[in-house]
Amino acid sequence: MTGSDAPIAFVTGGTGAIGLAVAVALRDAGYRTIAAALSGGTAALPEGIEGRDLDVSDPASIAASLADLSSVSVLVNAAGITAREGREFDPDVFCRIVDINLNGAMRMSMAAHPLLRKAKTAAVVNICSMLSFFGSPTVPAYSASKGGLLLLTKSLAAAWAEEGIRVNAVAPGYIETDLTQALHTHDAHRTRIEARTPMGRWGKPEDVTGAVLFLCSPGAGFVTGAVIAADGGYSAI
């Protein structure tokens, strides 16, 4: 199914490493895929993926990004930021990160809710983190926002189940992305994390996509409120 007949998948943070990998996977699965990100970030997307400007902290931007859509079958909330070097302990920085990572997912979900209802079947997948389960001594805002996103996932799943909208999450472990570059390019940190991960390696963005595709598929038709860890076993021990 292609073109105007294809179900629509909308990915926020669609130019980030994980968001883009998810967008490509959804395109390859037959969705009309929209990858939305901050202005200027969607200029060089792969063929077959539509780019849209989106600021998840701005309700007007969210409304504009959805305005011409008649329905949405899949919403993936992958937009997220962090700050290093202890900056997340600054209350203003803390609030900004929570506003993007957690409030942004809530804004997008509520704005897309009427469009999700119009789809024959609909799925929301939130990109959480292993820090949804663990505290962090260095990135408290990121950890708090992702912990909140996990419980938002469960709350929306319960609220929207009767409408045929399933809401689930994927919690990546240590994945090689721009956000984790300071860790995966540092020999000591990289080795420590590999030693702590049962599968003995860092993940690639593509290691997250299978779980997302499953949660969007008919095979997950009785799955809602679930969180799948894509972390090489890090959270298992």
From TrEMBL:
<dbReference type="GO" id="GO:0016616">
    <property type="term" value="F:oxidoreductase activity, acting on the CH-OH group of donors, NAD or NADP as acceptor"/>
</dbReference>
<protein>
    <submittedName>
        <fullName>NAD(P)-dependent dehydrogenase (Short-subunit alcohol dehydrogenase family)</fullName>
    </submittedName>
</protein>
<feature type="transmembrane region" description="Helical">
    <location>
        <begin position="6"/>
        <end position="26"/>
    </location>
</feature>
<keyword id="KW-0812">Transmembrane</keyword>
<dbReference type="Pfam" id="PF13561">
    <property type="entry name" value="adh_short_C2"/>
</dbReference>
<comment type="similarity">
    <text>Belongs to the short-chain dehydrogenases/reductases (SDR) family.</text>
</comment>
<dbReference type="InterPro" id="IPR036291">
    <property type="entry name" value="NAD(P)-bd_dom_sf"/>
</dbReference>
<dbReference type="InterPro" id="IPR020904">
    <property type="entry name" value="Sc_DH/Rdtase_CS"/>
</dbReference>
<keyword id="KW-1133">Transmembrane helix</keyword>
<dbReference type="InterPro" id="IPR002347">
    <property type="entry name" value="SDR_fam"/>
</dbReference>
<keyword id="KW-0472">Membrane</keyword>
<dbReference type="GO" id="GO:0030497">
    <property type="term" value="P:fatty acid elongation"/>
</dbReference>
